[in-house]
Amino acid sequence: MENNVRVKVIGAGLAGSEAALQLAKQGVEVDLYEMRPIKTTGAHTTDKPAEFVCSNSLGSLDATNASGLLKHEMEALGSYLINVAKESSVPAGNALAIDRTLFSQKVENLLKESGKINIIREEVTQIPKDTPVIIASGPLTSDTLAEDIKNFGGSEHLHFFDAIAPIVEKDSIDFDKAFYASRYDKGEASYINCPMNKQEYEKFYEILINAPKIELKEFEKDAKFFESCLPIEVLASRGVDTLRYGPMKPVGLVDKRTGIENYAVVQLRQDNVSATMYNLVGFQTNLKWGSQKELLHSIPGLENANILRYGVMHRNTFINSPMLLEATLQCKKRKDIFFAGQITGTEGYTESIATGMLAGINMAKYLKGEDLITLPDITMLGALMKYITTCEQKHFQPINSNWGIVADLDVDRKIKKNKKLKNEMLSKRSLEYIKSVF
Ligand SMILES: Cc1cc2nc3c(=O)[nH]c(=O)nc-3n(C[C@H](O)[C@H](O)[C@H](O)COP(=O)(O)OP(=O)(O)OC[C@H]3O[C@@H](n4cnc5c(N)ncnc54)[C@H](O)[C@@H]3O)c2cc1C
User: Which domains does the chain have, with CATH numbers?
Assistant: First the structure.
């Protein structure tokens, strides 16, 4: 490695912060560019690094769950931000949920303490030509940089939509109606549940389907939603019971005071360590704020809820990774460029940190002239990398961790039918591989 080589990392989000820390660990000097607070994205609300823009949950911690396995792999590979997430966690059953303020503060401390990372508050408007660079500018990459990336990639830029769920103040919830419970009594009873009978659900549904939506801009109208993060109004438009089988599913949530499993339930997840804020699980929405207020106040227990943050919807940008990237996250046509985070088409907080980690590790290896890491698809991270770099370019859409992309087990069909056993075996296979190689 040349003595004075510096890497530019664009974006101090989840991926960029992790990538910068991985580079610093390898002794590489980093210029970490972050445009906030000079220019903001419309979803971020602070000037802090690694801000969680919507839900505060990174999903399951269980190694037999697809997202859980990814976290275990990241821990084994030395991810900084997964460690910080654990240090900043709030109770959320089997999931890893964080206090977002504490999390960002801890990440900022790590960046500053590394002694190798220079944080520059500036918008990068073009891909730097003369230095190695990791592009981790996220789904809300500024327009000027997005345009340059589009020209560089030589393809039409793609996008879809994500929406954010509202947050309410705990003290404004009516606990004569709401109750604490976790589904099937698993883990701590840390979720607040607002129960609905049939009549209450139907009234809620009426308000929802009749609520005015925010009009999409003309250029946004051909865009798609990300299927696993659909706004509630879109789910509701699919039928009266869709929500009862989705985010408002009542099964396994019994109110111990009455012994009743209700017709529908709205769940709220703790959002900060002091447990004063709770977000509505699966309630991402693009309704006008007045309609959101009416809708939330129609939920039993939330009649007087103080809404601390309303839901909003945003465009989400990603590159054509099958065309542009290797499974190491290195760019095919310029070897000193790596992409990381949601912009690669890996969807989700955990996935963004994971690709930041891999891009950081591989950029350091590239600079040292070492072989880059390509993980096999028996690991969740390897499977994600394989998917985004080998799937059909024309129909490429973002993806999150799931068992469908992982290499199949070479075992008897009977074992494969036992989902629990199969996932245990898949998980063991991946973690044993990682432990044996790294
Ligand atoms: C509205 C919305 C809601 C989401 N909700 C969830 C959720 O609930 N759960 C989940 O798992 N995932 C969610 N995601 C998806 C994704 O996990 C997050 O967006 C995640 O933060 C992506 O990490 P990242 O590092 O790629 O980007 P980010 O964390 O957004 O970081 C990118 C950084 O780059 C900066 N930047 C952008 N352009 C420039 C530039 N030109 N120069 C300098 N800096 C720049 C930005 O300010 C930002 O700080 C959501 C995405 C969006 C857009």
Answer: 6-161+315-437 (3.50.50.60), 165-311 (2.40.30.260)
